[in-house]
Amino acid sequence: MVRLTSITTRTGDDGQTSLADGTRVSKADARIVAQGSVDELNAAVGLAAAMGAAGVAGLLQRIQNDLFDLGADITVPDSAKTEQSLRMTARHIEALEQAVAEVNGRLQPLSSFVLPGGTVAAAHLHVARTIARRAERDVWALAAEAEINPLIGQYLNRVSDLLFVMARDANDGGRGDVLWVPGGADT
């Protein structure tokens, strides 16, 4: 169990922070940037849950918990990982793929690209989806300079897929999706 007794530590006031193994790095380090995007994603998922994404609150909470585990996987350099280190695994990805298939199975087929919007819950899920895509890009940028668990990027890719179908589900099973009309702004 984690116990936080002091929130203000002043240890980051010089633009440096610590990785989970104690290594000091710049707050602009690719590992910290990726972790920050994952943290932002987690907050956006929490907001979507709070905004009433009907019937998926438990799934969103599971994603939030997974994102904390994923963050731990990012912040511990591979060279410092132990058997007790939290790691993303194939089972995390398989669970997301099952959820995508389940939610997608109840949706109207797509006839166009979907514009982010519709209900308030769907709009928040779309925002979370775009943050997931950025977090994924940040993780792959980190992977270009440091060895990381490749399942981290795969997990974020599947999360964005799930958030997309959840947003469609929040738009009355896709019937309330706002569809892209090519050149529609000109008409």
Largest sheet: 2 strands, antiparallel
Low-confidence stretches: none
What best-fitting shape do the alpha-carbon axes yield? elongated
The number of helical runs is 5
CATH superfamily: Cobalamin adenosyltransferase-like
**Largest beta sheet: strand ordering:** 1-2
Residues in helices, as a percent range: 40-55%
Estimate nothing, just give the exact number of structural domains: 1
Counting helices, strands and paired strands, the structural category is mainly alpha
- What is the fold named in CATH at topology level? Hypothetical Protein Ta1238, Chain: A
Pfam families: Cob_adeno_trans
Domain Cobalamin adenosyltransferase-like: 7-168
GO molecular function: ATP binding; corrinoid adenosyltransferase activity
InterPro entries: CblAdoTrfase-like, CblAdoTrfase-like_sf, PduO-typ
Essential attributes:
187 residues, mainly alpha, 4 strands, 53% helix, elongated
Write up this protein.
The chain has 187 residues and is mainly α. It has one domain (25-174): Hypothetical Protein Ta1238, Chain: A (Up-down Bundle). The chain is 53% helix and 5% strand. The protein contains five helices and four strands. The protein has helices spanning 30-50, 57-75, 90-104, 120-143, 151-170, and strands at 16-18, 24-26, 114-115, 178-179. A two-stranded antiparallel ribbon has the order 1-2. Strands 3-4 form a two-stranded antiparallel ribbon. Helix 1 (30-50) runs antiparallel to helix 4 (120-143) and helix 3 (90-104) packs parallel to helix 5. It is elongated, with a radius of gyration of 18 Å. The relative contact order is 0.17.
